[in-house]
């Protein structure tokens, strides 16, 4: 049986008594693009640095194609791991041309020129080969850093918040562009980011991390539709968790009575994940809310609506709406699209 390309098994990293990474496990297959996603301090960068060999691990193991890279008693040096790394600050040599930056780690190889030519073409930088880093935009410099990391033909590429210095729109588009480049080069990769738009644009699998733990390793679709924890539900996408309680076999909420698909017992407290597209406006509905803010986004408008409990929910309305702050509106919960019920 062919081993996984990367296996991270119950990985832990401690700084003194503090567990920066706590029993994290996941696998990456050949050709897969993965992402570690979470807020600052969640352990995602420490996990990446442990895979790269820059951090010693205190428990668990890291294997590349079945060969151990790290255990608590053993560690292969970073330069012998056959991994590529792209850093947040690009780390380009300012005195070298773009061609020479890409060739830096492989200049002694017989096929160096052919490799660099191929990577210049792959990253759309052929016309800029003789320029210097300061003559390029931030997005172009990031592609140079990517090409340089790909030049030694690593088995796995590690990307540490590589787009964080760019504006939001460019981050997302460059994440898609890098994903396309990696697919063309047939290289697997792990991206670390705190930006879910980047993660969704880039990854086949995403691991949501919080307080050193991996809460869920799943597809972007499943993270959005079926988050396993309240933290993931709040962190991924827009939405809120509204409280409910099982009464007479149904879940009673502020927005109406819902089915009890998991047969939770009577009086059990439930949280129901409600996304903006789970709600619609309905004048005759007995469930009311007051508009507190509206955000026009071209093809749709987001309405932020306060329920009688003061909890604010978000509703997606196609196109424009005449509703303004302070207006009351009826709400209907589209229960058929609800899938996430979290037990307190």
Automatic annotation (TrEMBL):
<keyword id="KW-0997">Cell inner membrane</keyword>
<dbReference type="Pfam" id="PF00005">
    <property type="entry name" value="ABC_tran"/>
</dbReference>
<feature type="domain" description="ABC transporter">
    <location>
        <begin position="6"/>
        <end position="236"/>
    </location>
</feature>
<keyword id="KW-0406">Ion transport</keyword>
<keyword id="KW-1278">Translocase</keyword>
<keyword id="KW-0410">Iron transport</keyword>
<keyword id="KW-0408">Iron</keyword>
<keyword id="KW-0813">Transport</keyword>
<dbReference type="InterPro" id="IPR050093">
    <property type="entry name" value="ABC_SmlMolc_Importer"/>
</dbReference>
<dbReference type="InterPro" id="IPR003593">
    <property type="entry name" value="AAA+_ATPase"/>
</dbReference>
<keyword id="KW-0067">ATP-binding</keyword>
<dbReference type="InterPro" id="IPR017871">
    <property type="entry name" value="ABC_transporter-like_CS"/>
</dbReference>
<dbReference type="Pfam" id="PF08402">
    <property type="entry name" value="TOBE_2"/>
</dbReference>
<dbReference type="InterPro" id="IPR015853">
    <property type="entry name" value="ABC_transpr_FbpC"/>
</dbReference>
<dbReference type="InterPro" id="IPR003439">
    <property type="entry name" value="ABC_transporter-like_ATP-bd"/>
</dbReference>
<dbReference type="InterPro" id="IPR027417">
    <property type="entry name" value="P-loop_NTPase"/>
</dbReference>
<dbReference type="InterPro" id="IPR013611">
    <property type="entry name" value="Transp-assoc_OB_typ2"/>
</dbReference>
<keyword id="KW-0547">Nucleotide-binding</keyword>
<dbReference type="InterPro" id="IPR008995">
    <property type="entry name" value="Mo/tungstate-bd_C_term_dom"/>
</dbReference>
<keyword id="KW-0472">Membrane</keyword>
<keyword id="KW-1003">Cell membrane</keyword>
<protein>
    <submittedName>
        <fullName>ABC transporter ATP-binding protein</fullName>
    </submittedName>
</protein>
<dbReference type="GO" id="GO:0005524">
    <property type="term" value="F:ATP binding"/>
</dbReference>
